[in-house]
Amino acid sequence: MVQRAILIGINKVNEDKKKSEDSLEELALLSKTAGAANVNMVLKTVKKIDPAYYLSKGMLEDIKELILQNGADLVIIDINLSPAQERNMSEYVGVNVIDRTRLILDIFATHARTAESKHQVELAMLNYILPRLKGSGIMLSRTGAGIGTRGPGETKLETDRRKVRQRIAYIKDKLKLAEKTRGLHRFTRKKQGLPTATLVGYTNSGKTTMFSALTRKGENGENKLFATLGTKMAGVYDKDSKRKVIISDTVGFIQNLPLFLVESFKATLEEVVHSDVLIHVIDPFQNDALSKSEEVIKILDSIGAGEKKTIVVLNKIDLLTNERVRFLQTKLEQLTGNDVIPVSAKTGDNINMLKEKIFNNV
Ligand code: GDP
Ligand code: MG
Q: Does the CB atom of residue 205 touch ligand 1 within 6 A?
């Protein structure tokens, strides 16, 4: 069931309006990534924060009206709410209200793949929801599963406080154990697996579109060999060399990632460390595209993937003039020290060149 979400941006007095608008735009992308349909989006100017509800009663009434008009069953607020505010708002408007952090955690949960990264994300989620649970917890009891209430791998998050605490202790133990045996596992994975190329880059840069373009079933139907891999991984087969490579999609980098979520985010990138080559996707239309790509490189460095072979891809060239493509290509080559391949994931332009480059690097 696709949830119908209303997105509420927040602009505080004295806060740059453009910044709040950009943040709301990003929230909309994140909401889509989480699988919701965005049915309405409004920016609210907040002069005075209500400690119990965050927004004024008047604004909450407006939101209630929007929920009715749009048949919405979820409200996502582009700010971090206190546990009480989240609960009070949900109660007031009659559907689940979740904040930015909970949305991000939900996305991380659906993207965590290995047992260890699932545990890391679940731990962050449980720590986040624990103070939000009171008694039966209105928001979780009413609607059951949905965005913000799912644990990793579509499991339902535990909502009984006592059990949450037990689960936290259990996961902490597991993680400690995993740390001890980690070296061993990496070794076996590496030996058995096919070569892997992993897509990295900011949200909306076009990773998922590129993933589809690269792994689209060829006329020989060979990609059904990989049918069991799921939606975030798929194989490409090279007819000439008869070789196979697994392409892996990742959760995107997020512009306004709260600091305490950085570790969970890195956990979702765990696959990156195991992969043979990285495909760094750059969206020329993102604000500060160049400094964003530096940010990507820094984070990759910090998870121990700084030395990996990287293919840098300038995406969305169908929307650029040739002159602009050449300019950005040169800039990015200087910045990353790598060749830059200009492509359009959407039209398929140069995708074969990218494929060739991948096969040459694994
Ligand atoms: P992700 O967040 O990195 O996975 O990005 P998506 O693959 O979901 O793409 C984000 C948006 O950019 C979507 O609206 C895509 O249709 C669009 N997009 C992706 N690649 C291209 C491209 O090469 N050209 C154009 N014009 N749009 C693209
Ligand atoms: Mg994506």
A: yes
Residue whose C-alpha is closest to residue 70's, from 95, 88, 92, 35: 95
* Model confidence pTM above 0.70: yes
Residue with CA closest to ligand 1 atom 17: 206
C-beta 316 within 6 A of ligand 1: yes
- 315 CB near ligand 1 (under 6 Å): yes
* Residue 205 Cα: closest atom of ligand 1: 3
Is 291 or 284 the better-scoring residue by pLDDT?
284
208 CB within 6 A, ligand 1: yes
DSSP H helices in 12-151: 17-33, 57-70, 83-93, 100-111, 115-129, 138-143
Write the CA distances from 89 to 47, 93, 285, integer angstroms.
18, 6, 35
For residue 191 the two structure tokens come to: 């030996």
Residue 224: which pLDDT band, with cuts at 50, 70 and 90?
A: low
* Contacting residues for 181 by C-beta, under 8 A, at least 6 apart: none
Domain assignments of the chain as residue spans, ordered by start: 4-104, 112-171, 193-361
User: What tens digit of pLDDT does each residue of 121-162 get?
Assistant: 889 888 888 887 764 444 444 445 688 878 787 677 777 888
Which ligand 1 atom lies nearest to the CA of residue 281? Answer: 3
Residues paired with residue 321 on neighbouring β-strands, in sequence order: none
3-state SS assignment for residue 273: helix
Q: Which CATH architecture has domain 193-361?
A: 3-Layer(aba) Sandwich (3.40)
CATH topology of domain 4-104: Rossmann fold (3.40.50)
Q: How far apart are CA 83 and CA 88, in angstroms?
A: 9
